[in-house]
Structure formats: structure tokens, C-alpha cells
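Course assignment 3, question 2. Fill in each field.
Student: A.L.
Task: Predict the tertiary structure for the chain below.
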Amino acid sequence: MINNKTILVTGGTGSFGKAFINYVLENFKPKKLIVFSRDELKQSQMSSELSKKKNNKILRFFIGDIRDYKRLCFALKDVDIVIHAAALKNVPIAEYNPFEAVKTNIVGAQNIIEASIENNVSKIIALSTDKASSPINLYGATKLVSDKLFIAANNFKGKSKIDFSIVRYGNVMGSRGSIVPIFLNHKDKGYLPITDKKMTRFNITLNQAIEIVFKC
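Answer field:
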């Protein structure tokens, strides 16, 4: 499936990216595994954490932003599979920084699509969210647009054999920025803070998220 393939993970230093890359290193033998993200400190820490893995020599760390089309094109040379996990995901922050959310979640998605087609990538799986279903906030709206771009890309890819897919899931329990640490901090205070009593949350574990992506 992914043995002897070159895989690039955008947002590779995030909660999902780290877990996905660990899983691949432990269970498969890809030709190359590229971590693409814009935070050099997280890349340095991740490189150190994975230094004891027996097959860590296949790892590559690329500093870059999905907003930067030229850098993305360079990183995607000879890549077979793209796992697109990079996004601005914090709902309140997206509300207060709408232009930045649009640049990353929508323009970044378009860059991924066009750069992948240009470089003859075989498969792209973009990670989405339950918040893209009937969105009521900007984050959900930008991810809905992103989803539509990726699905539509299957229609304008021309003769290319590239496949674009979307994986939607809910709140990843215990991931960076999830509600779990907040609840744990309030466990002795007698109440759990929630945004709205009427809200519905769809929860998933990190392992389940990885399983869904591999199934796709």
C-alpha cells in the first residue's frame, strides 16, 4: 500500500501528523517520509524524538507553508502520497483572524491541489472536520470550501491519474487544543465548562483517526 512510496504530510508536527508518522515508521517501509510544516522548533523536537527509530533515515523535514506555492511545488517533487493535515483549526482564533484562516484553509488547499497535479502525485487525502457539515463558524466554513475544492479537483485533473479524497472526523480526544486538558483542569472544581448546553460534539481517538485515513 505505502511501502516503497514517498509520503509527504503537511502539518506533520501536529498531533495527527506525529501519530501518523510514528505509525508508518513502526508498520511500513516507505521510501521516504517528509514532514512539511512551518515551525522549526517543533521539527527539531520531533526529529530528536524519532532519532532512535530504526528506520529514521527515511525521514525528511521541510520548513514550509502551504500558502507558499513555490515551496510546496519543490517539496512535492517525486512524492507519491500527500496527507494534508495542515490547517488553522481553533474556532475562536479563526473568528478573530478570518483572513488568515482563509489563506491557510482555502488558498492553502488550492495550492496543494495545483502543486500535486503539477508534480504527478498519485493520491491526496485531506483531513476535514465535522464542523464542515452545516457550518456555523468560520473554521467550519473554510473547511467546507476546502472539501469542495478537493472533491472538485477530481473533475479538472485532466488525464492525470491522481485521486483526491476527504476524511471527515470529529474532535480528536487528547490532541493538542482538545477539550480533554481543559476538563482535567476543572475536575476538582465541581463543573465542566462548555460553550453551549445544546451543542453536540463528535469525538474520536487519535488511533481511530489514523485508522480512518489508512482505510481511505
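Instructor remarks: The longest strand covers residues 123-129. The mean pLDDT is 92.
Grade: pending
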